[in-house]
Specification:
With about 150 residues, the protein is an alpha+beta fold. The chain is built from three helices and six strands; from the N terminus they run αβαββββαβ. Helix 2 packs across helix 3. The longest helix has about 35 residues.
């Protein structure tokens, strides 16, 4: 029969083994993430960023124009607000070659254009052509301002 001290030692050893396995797994996961972050071919950030400034009362018009753009260029699209006030919206467009991730907040929409798969980049001209087209859709709304960063 095992004594209480022996049971305690066995339990402590099992717990310690589990914790070491857990922390070892976390360390391995973190090193893999760090490796990916340091490899620019796998994560090079946005190719272009545009900022749209608009009267907050025209938000629905803006979203409608983005939906027209998405339809024309065959993007899947999601415009979603996860918070109750409806002041902040995520705007996501994606397809196999290009993705666009954005955030709308009280009259300002930032959209970041990047490769869906950085290991298979598309010519930069694709971004230029599509961003120019998106700008033309958005400029149909009066009083809108658009800036672009490369």
């Amino acid at each position: 029969m095992l004594t209480n001290r022996t049971k305690l030692l066995i339990s402590a050893s099992l717990i310690l083994s589990c914790l070491l396995g857990l922390f070892g797994g976390i360390a391995i996961g973190r090193s893999a993430i760090a490796k990916n972050m340091n490899n620019p071919s796998e994560d090079q950030g946005p190719i272009r960023v545009i900022t749209v400034t608009i009267n907050p009362n025209q938000r629905e018009q803006l979203f409608a124009q983005i939906e027209k753009f998405a339809d024309k260029w065959a993007y899947a699209i999601r415009i979603d607000s996860a918070e109750p006030s409806g002041k902040y919206f995520g705007v996501d467009l994606w397809r196999s070659d290009i993705k666009v991730l954005g955030l709308y907040s009280e009259g300002v929409l930032d959209l970041a254009f990047s490769y869906t798969d950085p290991t298979h980049p598309v010519p930069e001209q694709y971004f230029v052509e599509e961003i120019n087209d998106l700008k033309s859709f958005i400029n149909e709304i009066s009083g809108v301002s658009i800036t672009e960063e490369k």
